[in-house]
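This section describes the prediction task in plain terms. A model, or a person checking by hand, is given the sequence of a single protein chain and must write out its three-dimensional structure as a string of tokens. No templates, partner chains or ligands are provided. The sample shown here is typical of the held-out split.
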Amino acid sequence: MRIGLYPGTFDPITNGHIDIIRRACSLVDRLVIGVAINRDKGPLFNLEERVAMIRSEVASIAASTGTEIVAHPFENLLIDCARDVGANVIIRGLRAVADFEYEFQMVGMNRSLDNSIETVFLMADAKNQAIASKLVKEICRLNGDVSKFVPTSVKSALESRLRG
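The expected answer:
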């Protein structure tokens, strides 16, 4: 069984994340969405909220692709998380050259820790390349329309939290 790990903070999940998830399903039989518990980032949504948003948004993708998709919180090293879930590939999304520079360094470190786990990069679709959770939160906080960047239910959650 091909098992992929797609890690991130997902605070919140965006259309860019969903695009990568949908496309990753063509590469693996089981996709684990690794939801990082990163206390240093001070997420807007708590872990349970982020996991619930992910589960809600990926249910239809799992049904349409036949790929098992699960949300898995983690707080350890990414490579240890990959081992924990039995992943043989780490899926990473790229938006721009700046992403690549950071990811290139991460791959080198991860390969030095365990060279049996590959990393696969998927380029964000052109319409999603500018989307970043941090920017989406800022736009929403300043009363901008984020409907092009996140699913409807996530937009509602953002507006409730940031404008409520």
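For orientation: The mean pLDDT is 94.
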